[in-house]
Amino acid sequence: MPVITALHKLGKLSRASQDTLIVVTGVLMTFIAASAFDLAERVNAWLLTYEYAQLDEVPLTLFVLVLLSVWFSQRRMREIHAEILHRKRTEAELSNSQQLYKTLFDGDLTGNVVLDMDGNIGMHNRAFDRICRPLSHDRNACGLFAFDWADFVMQLQAQHEINFNKLQIRRPDGLPCYVGARFVYVPSAARKPAQIHGYLIDMTEQCLVELDLERTLNENRVLARHAMQMQEQERKYIASEIHDETGQYLTAIRMDALTLQKSDPDQAHVIAVRIASNTQHVQQSIRALIKHLRPPALDTLGLIGAVERLINDWKKLNPLVECHLALDTGEQALHEDTNIVAFRVVQEALTNIARHADASEVWVTIQIIKRQDKSLLQIEIRDNGKGMDTTQASEGVGLVGMRERIESLQGSFKLMSGLQAGTLITGQLPLNTSKATPKAASLLSDPGVNDYATS
């Protein structure tokens, strides 16, 4: 029972304490056994029989050997301990270096990727995954880049480095993606196969902005060319009207006035009647020109009355199309520029519907709305026609002109349409705009949007 208790207590000690206890116990048991059996005397007596071999000196030699062994073990233990500490420090530094490398590799905004010569992805960081979004089951990058992989590898092996200012990425999700890229060829060494290191910088937002600016610039060029063409047509029309109508009647009036000076009273009466008739024709011609250049209803009836008259005239030309109106601006007086832009937007939208939409119903809504403590004039024109594909570039200038007119007054323009889904045009104009910008002034005075009756 005491032995069991002693073993149980021994099991609770540390490894070093257990070893020390074993050594002390072994030494005590050896001393007790040697004292009980007189082992030293017996050994000395046996060694004396071999005095010629000097075996009696062996115990002292063994004792010295033990002391030297203890000294040697202590030195080796200190060296091993120092080596262990050095290795621990080295492993800690290596772990920190690996963590730093992993942080830099994964945390960098640049997409880094390691490829083999067949385009298989060996390693990449999170930025590369965010930019390119490779499929989890497809670890090959050949289809990601907009170039022939075999020709690219041959060129890279010859040049060792290839840079791309703008490279299109074929993302699996189909979203547009453009990057600036650098590919470096790493030759094989020490039984390590050759690799391709890629570094990608996401430039999608910048490229999309550039494409949008280029599209806007092209639209502005088309709109400016159209405006100049329409300006020349208007000048030609006005010159023709003045020459053919006003000019002829003014010439007749001048000739009658010269004749009147030499005429008797009876002839003077006839000439005066003719002059009055010619003057009336001149006035009618001038009124027609004024109406062509600016809708007089805007000045006399305001925006709502002018739009109602416009739509009534439009219905006469398009009797098969049912038109629904919802016009309400309250008692608020609108600025002249706002009236002109709203009128021209409705006019151009109706012209487009008559020409292209093939619609049976049209809804026109003009109202004042409140948004974030701001008053806005909202214009909506909707039809149930064949619609259009808004993702395709349009060669027409009608929609571009409407957008430019609205945005020139710091407004917003929105187009929603689809094939066989009709079209919805929404424009919002701030009512606190008191003065048009220079760009707006040119658009307001530009007769580029023809009246539907004369187009």
The residue ranges in which pLDDT falls below 50 over 5 or more consecutive positions are 434-455
Rg value:
50 Å
Strand percent estimate: 15-25%
How many helices? 12
Order of helices and strands: HHHHEEHHEEEHHHEHEEHEEH
Tell me, what's the shape?
rod-shaped
Separation, N- and C-terminal Cα atoms? 120 Å
Q: Name the structural class.
A: alpha+beta
Transmembrane segments: 21-40, 52-72
GO molecular function, one term: protein dimerization activity
Keywords: Kinase, Membrane, Transferase, Transmembrane, Transmembrane helix, Two-component regulatory system
InterPro entries: HATPase_C_sf (IPR036890), HATPase_dom (IPR003594), His_kinase_dom (IPR005467), PAS-like_dom_sf (IPR035965), Sensor_HK_TwoCompSys (IPR050482), Sig_transdc_His_kin_sub3_dim/P (IPR011712)
